Structure to design on (422 residues):
């Protein structure tokens, strides 16, 4: 029930949300430019998103 | 078309509601919450027997449905006994004149009364013998290894028997194996050297994938959410990277060409740290993703029992259901990421290119 830990976890989640959102935005723009490369872009997006999400799980252990 | 959608929506709602049977009229006690917390903690840890489920019977004693596994200890000599003698930590096991007791999931040698001495930090100070037991995680790893062996052996043999066309269950894995070779191994490691690493990458991918999926079943097995297991996998990647590395790899870490000499001294410690941190991040990523997924899922299922009304329990069940679906995706994705990053690190180790000083 420590407030600093809970606040810290919340900030981590905000960071992860912004990060994955930016990755998604980049992926959408890239697909818009080159619709043929949809598969490759999707793969790269998922890899980058999983890397960012991995840091986000640190938040769960803080609480 | 709209009618079908309406029917599916109604059926899904009924499906969700039908699982929320916990209805009583009292408020949930603190007892229930700490019981759920203890249950989750127990799920995340390793046990000495394969326990499917346990409940408290009518007359108060606990009933465990499961299979005891052998406990193998080295305590001045090999001691092997069945974990049913430990009775889930309630009694002292007497084996050949020595007494063992479970305390917080670890086996300690005690006297006949089962006394365990604690120090200031509440850690037990009894002698803990070297433990080589077949625990639940070890048993699951062995079962998964056998499953993978027979699955892929069958696939390989079907090629021989059927003129280079796969038949049988293994057909499903052929495109995945080709994807690992063509999109992960060759682009990262290069045409010349990828074959050496293919067997490790394939084993790694399917091992982690199968173990992650097994963790989502109701059997209550949690292998990849155990930091010792992910440490071993990351350690293997670390060993393979550094022991099959060429001279260029070490040059790039300690004495990188194309960088002014003073900066090389400054960058070398950072690169050296990077050698350790890259496999370390592999370990933490897999461990955190899988164990966090399990914690969230089990907390939501526990929430069904804390909300003892129709609305809250249905919502909790729906959320738990949706998160289970995501966890299936995460199982595959984490295996894929571990494999891609391992291939990337192998690629760093064996890449060779012509250097000029300008790099």
């Amino acid at each position: 029930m420590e407030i600093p830990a809970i606040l810290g976890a919340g900030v981590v989640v905000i960071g992860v949300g912004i990060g994955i959102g930016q990755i998604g935005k980049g992926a959408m723009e890239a697909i818009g430019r080159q619709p043929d490369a949809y598969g490759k872009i999707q793969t790269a997006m998922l890899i980058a998103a999983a890397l960012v999400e991995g840091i986000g799980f640190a938040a769960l252990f803080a609480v | 078309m709209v009618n079908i959608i309406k029917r599916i929506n109604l059926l899904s709602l009924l499906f969700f509601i039908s699982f929320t049977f916990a209805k009583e009229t009292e408020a949930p006690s603190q007892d229930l919450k700490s019981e759920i917390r203890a249950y989750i903690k127990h799920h995340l840890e390793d046990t000495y027997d394969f326990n499917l489920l346990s409940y408290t019977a009518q007359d108060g004693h606990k009933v465990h449905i499961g299979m005891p596994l052998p406990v193998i200890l080295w305590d001045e000599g090999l001691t092997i006994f069945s974990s049913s003698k430990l009775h889930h930590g309630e009694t002292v096991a007497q084996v050949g004149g020595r007494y063992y007791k479970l305390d917080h999931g670890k086996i300690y040698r005690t006297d006949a009364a089962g006394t365990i001495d604690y120090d200031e930090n509440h850690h037990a100070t009894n002698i803990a013998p070297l433990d080589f037991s077949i625990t639940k995680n070890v048993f699951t790893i062995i079962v998964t290894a056998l499953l993978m062996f027979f699955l892929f052996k069958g696939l390989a043999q079907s090629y021989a028997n059927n003129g280079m066309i796969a038949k049988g269950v293994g057909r499903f894995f052929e495109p995945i194996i080709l994807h690992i070779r063509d999109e992960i191994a060759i682009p990262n490691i290069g045409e010349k050297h990828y074959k050496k690493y293919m067997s490790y990458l394939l084993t790694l991918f399917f091992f982690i994938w199968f173990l992650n999926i097994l963790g989502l079943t109701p059997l209550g097995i949690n292998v990849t959410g155990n930091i010792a297991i992910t440490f071993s996998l990351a350690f293997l990647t670390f060993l393979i990277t550094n022991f099959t590395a060429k001279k260029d790899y070490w040059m790039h870490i300690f004495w990188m060409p194309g960088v002014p000499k003073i900066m090389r001294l400054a960058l070398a410690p950072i690169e050296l740290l990077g050698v350790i941190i890259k496999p370390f991040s592999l370990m933490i990523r897999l461990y955190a993703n899988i164990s966090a997924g399990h914690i969230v899922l089990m907390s939501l299922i526990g929430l069904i029992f804390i909300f003892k009304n129709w609305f809250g329990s249905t919502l909790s069940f729906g959320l738990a259901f949706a998160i289970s679906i995501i966890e299936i995706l995460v199982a595959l994705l984490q295996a894929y990421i571990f494999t891609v990053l391992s291939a990337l690190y192998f690629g760093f180790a064996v890449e060779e290119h012509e250097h000029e000083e300008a790099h």
